[in-house]
Design brief:
The protein contains 3 helices and 6 strands. By secondary structure, the chain is an alpha+beta fold. The longest helix has 31 residues.
Length: 154
Amino acid sequence: MKRNRVGALLTAAVAVSGLLLVGWPVVHFLATYGCGEDEERLADLMTDAAAVLDTAPEGAGPKKRYRECDDDDRRVVVGTHYRYDGSPTSALAHYRKAAEADGWQPRTTAGGGTVPGCFTKPVDGTTAYLGVEGPDDGLLHVEIVADGSGSQWC
């Protein structure tokens, strides 16, 4: 009888240990993985702070607006695609002017230069990055990227 009680206690101790060592990390992962309210709020603020996304260079076709969040790194992206057959130089000139009018600053390098087509602006305690790419195959991409961990983009 005493041996059964010790065996039952030992079995219970192993089961509890297993649940704590394996179960808790699984529960924590499932409860915290992916985009949530913080990322939704950041996306709302990025959209509100992005009048530059509503501008388009002359000759740009209809825009397609998008908003997404990457569940793995919780990166929030708000952007616009345009059909555009103009030159990259004219697109960049347009967005340089529009970005500066909207409070964006050119992203600087460690050497004091600037990164073409990349601008920064503080949004909700992190740095948001406005990137202008293209036009590639007639498509101009203008998007804002940010995450809560303060990663650097573009």
